[in-house]
From TrEMBL:
It comes from the Eukaryota. The gene is ND2. One of its GO terms (cellular component) is mitochondrial inner membrane. Core subunit of the mitochondrial membrane respiratory chain NADH dehydrogenase (Complex I) that is believed to belong to the minimal assembly required for catalysis. Complex I functions in the transfer of electrons from NADH to the respiratory chain. The immediate electron acceptor for the enzyme is believed to be ubiquinone. Core subunit of the mitochondrial membrane respiratory chain NADH dehydrogenase (Complex I) which catalyzes electron transfer from NADH through the respiratory chain, using ubiquinone as an electron acceptor. Essential for the catalytic activity and assembly of complex I. InterPro entries: Complex_I_Subunit_2, NADH_UbQ_OxRdtase_chain2, ND/Mrp_TM. It catalyses: a ubiquinone + NADH + 5 H(+)(in) = a ubiquinol + NAD(+) + 4 H(+)(out). The chain crosses the membrane at residues 7-22, 58-80, 149-168, 198-216, 236-255, 275-291, 319-338. Keywords: Electron transport, Membrane, Mitochondrion, Mitochondrion inner membrane, NAD, Respiratory chain, Translocase, Transmembrane, Transmembrane helix, Transport, Ubiquinone. One of its GO terms (molecular function) is NADH dehydrogenase (ubiquinone) activity. This is NADH-ubiquinone oxidoreductase chain 2.
Length: 339
C-alpha cells in the first residue's frame, strides 16, 4: 500500500480520470479518462503484507485493459461505418459500445471478475471499487442509453444475480459485491426514464456503502459469523450495523428506500410495471441476506465461540454515527421537506 502522500496523489489522478471521462465530448477523451483512472487505481490495490492483492490487481488490470481495448475498437468501427455512410443499426452499435462499459462497471452478466477482485482487497479499496470506479462507466452508458431489449435483459440479470448470488455467501466482501451488482441494476433502470435520477441513487448508495464499509473496517470484520463476536455490552456498535445494513437494503423507513421508491413510481408511470414488480421481488430476496447480517450483529449475544475469541471493538468514529443518523432520519426529513 502506498504511503499517505502517494495515496493522495493517486486518488487525485483517479478522480481526474473520472472527471475527464464524464466531461469529454469525444469517445477518445472518454477512453483516455478511463485509462488514467485504471492506471491510478492499480498501485493503490497492491499491498506487501497481503499476497492476495497481487492476484486481485492483476485480474482487475487484465479485465479493464481488455474492456478498454474493446471499447476503442468498437468506437473506431462505429466511426468507420459513419464515414462510409453505411446503413448500420444504431441500436446494434450502441449495444457493442455499451458491452465493454458494462464489463468495466461489473454489471451482470459481465460481473464474473468482480467477486474475485473484491475478495483480495482491503476495505478502503473495496469502497473505491464499489463507488468511484462505477461512476465513469455508468455516466458514459447514461449518455447513449435506450429502452431496448438488450438493456432490459441487463437490468433483470443484474437485479436477479445480485439477489440470488448473495444468498449462499458468508464473506462480507462478496455480499457487498452482489449488493453492488443489484444496486447497479436499479441505477440502470433509473437511466431509462431519461432523467438524472440515477445520480441521486448513486449518491445515496455511495453514502450508505461508505457507512457499512466504515463500520466493518473499524470492527475488523470479514465474515458473517464474526459479527456475533463484537462486544456484548457495546450496544451502539450493534445498532449502527443493524440500521446501516437495512438502509442499504432499502427497507422503509430508512434513507435507502427513498431512491427505490422514486424509481418504482417513475417506472409505473412509464408502463414498466412488470419490470418494476420483478425488481421489487428481487429486493425482497436481497433483504434476506441483509437480515442475516443484521441478525448476527444484533440478536446473537455470545461474546466468544469455540473457534475464535472476540476482539475488543475499536472506538467508533463520530462520522460513522453521523452517517448512520442521516441514514435513519433521511427519509423522514426528505418527506417533510417535499410536503
Amino acid at each position: 500500500m502506498p504511503n499517505n502522500s502517494t495515496k493522495i496523489l493517486l486518488l487525485t489522478t483517479l478522480t481526474s480520470g473520472i472527471l475527464i471521462s464524464i466531461s469529454s465530448n469525444s469517445w477518445f477523451g472518454a477512453w483516455m479518462g478511463l485509462e488514467i483512472n485504471l492506471l491510478s487505481f492499480i498501485p493503490m490495490m497492491v499491498e506487501k503484507k497481503n499476497i492476495y492483492t497481487t492476484e486481485a490487481s492483476l485480474k482487475y488490470f487484465i479485465v479493464q485493459a481488455g474492456a478498454s481495448s474493446m471499447l476503442l475498437f468498437m468506437v473506431m468501427m462505429s466511426a468507420l461505418e459513419e464515414s462510409m455512410l453505411t446503413n448500420s443499426d444504431n441500436l446494434y452499435t450502441q449495444m457493442l459500445i455499451n458491452t465493454p462499459l458494462l464489463l468495466k462497471g461489473g454489471v451482470a452478466p459481465m460481473h464474473w471478475w468482480f467477486p474475485g477482485v473484491m475478495e483480495g482487497l482491503n476495505w478502503d479499496n473495496c469502497l473505491i471499487l464499489m463507488t468511484l470506479q462505477k461512476a465513469a462507466p455508468l455516466s458514459l452508458i447514461s449518455y447513449q442509453i435506450n429502452n431496448d431489449v438488450f438493456l432490459g435483459m441487463i437490468i433483470m440479470s443484474s437485479v436477479m444475480i445480485g439477489a440470488i448470488g448473495g444468498l449462499n455467501q458468508t464473506s462480507l466482501r462478496k455480499i457487498m459485491t452482489y449488493s453492488s451488482i443489484n444496486h447497479t441494476g436499479w441505477m440502470m433502470s433509473a437511466m431509462i426514464t431519461g432523467s438524472d435520477m440515477w445520480v441521486m441513487y448513486f449518491t445515496i448508495y455511495s453514502m450508505l456503502t461508505l457507512t457499512v464499509v466504515s463500520i466493518v473496517k473499524t470492527t475488523k470484520l470479514s465474515f458473517i459469523n464474526q459479527m456475533a463476536l463484537t462486544e456484548k455490552k457495546n450496544k451502539l456498535t450493534k445498532f449502527l450495523v443493524f440500521t446501516s445494513i437495512l438502509s442499504l437494503g432499502g427497507l422503509p423507513p430508512f434513507l435507502g428506500f427513498m431512491p427505490k421508491w422514486m424509481i418504482i413510481q417513475t417506472m409505473m408511470t412509464n408502463d414498466m410495471s412488470t419490470t418494476a414488480t420483478m425488481m421489487v421481488l428481487m429486493s425482497v430476496v436481497t433483504l434476506y441476506y441483509y437480515m442475516r447480517m443484521s441478525y448476527s450483529s444484533l440478536m446473537i449475544l455470545h461474546s466468544e465461540t469455540k473457534w475464535l475469541i472476540a476482539q475488543p471493538t475499536n472506538k467508533m468514529p463520530k462520522y460513522i454515527i453521523l452517517l448512520t443518523s442521516v441514514s435513519v432520519m433521511g427519509l423522514m426529513v426528505s418527506e417533510t421537506i417535499m410536503t
